[in-house]
Amino acid sequence: MLTEILTLEDGLEKAVELIRKGEVVAFPTETVYGLGANALDKKAVKKIFEAKGRPADNPLIVHVADKSDIDRVAVEISNQAKAVIDAFMPGPITVILKKADCVPDEVSAGLPTVGIRFPAHVVATEFIKACRVPICAPSANTSTKISPTSAEHVFEDMNGRIPLILQGGECNVGIESTIIDMTCEVPTILRPGAITPAMLADVLGGVKTFEGKIVVAKAPGMKYRHYAPDCEMVVSSSAQTAVKIYDEEKDRKPVILANSDFIAEVAKIGNCDCIDLGKSDEDVMRNIYSSMHEAQKKFGFIICQDFGDKGIAASVMNRIEKASGGKRV
Question: Which residues have a Cβ under 8 Å from the Cβ of 78 and sit 6 or more positions away?
Fold first, then answer.
């Protein structure tokens, strides 16, 4: 299969035709690139799982191009859920709702609920709008690998597996959407993201985060290893420890991923290869996946800064902990 990369202008007509034929198309969102198919076509949905090598019990998120389309795929939407939708959509949030009968079990992994997202990216919304059907999509990478934040990342991983990638530049958020379950008695964050618990609490009055052993995953990213580079990755809480491990692992061609301040501390201690993720937590969030892609190409061992457990940094650390398998030094 030939995988093409086309702009929205050059590729929209072909993308829509592919979706109508039950095929899969990769497209950009503000978070990461998605691997999309007609959410109402169970045969097309199965092609997503085949392309990714994704377990069938890992549910997909349904993407819409307008808030009014949510009623097509979800029912019994509470006032609290509507408040979250009004406050944060379009944007990097997925709301778990009771699914409509038209949504196949293949999308929801057999669950009575479904995640709904309205992305804030012009290519995504124009693509979905033109398809005239909701589009279900996980990240556009093979299962367990680093999520893609550029069309080039998608091509490197999915070349030959899918027919088309819509080009939309670099993703400006950089990690997957926050997922909040609005079918619980207390709204529950199942996956952290750019929309933080504090931001949601301002709208809802209170939220909780998921804790406990996962038997049935209600949202993507809960049950399986995710976001992992091809080489080993560990987390370090201090520049001193990062340099120490760097020196011990020199035969493996190590690199340090960190923010600008952490790298400045590293430079005072040793001479290390580093990838600067930027100054702010927003910079780090936007750059973490692209830097991991760069690191796995050029280096053989990744040492990543611990960014803490507050706000957006905690969301970034959720991805890093999964990518590193929880390994700390």
Answer: 182
CB 135 within 8 A of CB 127: yes
β-bridge pairing 254-258 and 301-305: parallel
Q: What tokens appear for 110 in the block?
A: 């057999």
Q: What is the DSSP letter of 159?
A: B
Tokens describing residue 200: 């949601």
The 3-state DSSP composition of the chain as helix, strand, coil percent (nearest 5) reads 40, 20, 40
Q: Is the peptide bond before 187 cis (omega within 30 degrees of 0)?
A: no
- Burial call 130-163: b when 16+ CB within 10 Å, e when fewer: ebebbbbbbbbbebebbbbbbbbbbbebbeebbb
Is residue 224 scored above 90 in pLDDT? no
Q: Is 192 exposed, middle or buried (0-12, 13-18, 19+ CB in 10 A)?
A: buried
**Residue at token pair 């100054």:** 279
With both helix axes pointing from N to C terminus, report the angle between 79-88 and 197-204 in degrees, rounded to the nearest 10. Answer: 130
| pTM: predicted TM-score of the whole model, two decimal places | 0.94
Q: Do the Cβ atoms of 64 and 166 come closer than 8 Å?
A: no
pLDDT of 220 reads 59
HSE-CB of 57 using CA atoms within 13 angstroms:
7
Average pLDDT over residues 131-157: 96
Look at residues 109, 42, 114, 104 and name the one whose alpha carbon lies nearest to residue 71: 114
